[in-house]
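[Automated response] Your request has been received and processed.

Submitted sequence:
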Amino acid sequence: MTKKGASVADSVYKVIELVGTSTDSWEKAAAAAIALAGQSLRDLRIAEVSQLDMVLEGGKVTAYRCKVKVSFKYEGGG
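Generated structure:
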C-alpha cells in the first residue's frame, strides 16, 4: 500500500545462505560471513541470523558458527 503521490520502485532481491566461523564468538562469526560476502557482492541489504552452533572437541568449544541469510539487490544474468 502506498500513500497518494508516493511511488515504490520495483526491485528483486536474491537471498543466499552463508556460514561464518570464529574461535572467539558468534558475533565475530557473523561479521566474518558478511565481510566475505561484501568482497564479491554489491548492494547488501539485510542479514538474518538463522542458526547458531558450536564445534566441540574434547568437550570444549573450539569454534562458533553462525548461519546467516544475506540479501542483495538482484541485477539479473542468471
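Summary generated for your ticket: The beta strands are 13-22, 44-57, 60-73. The longest strand covers residues 44-57.
If you did not submit this request, please reply to this message.
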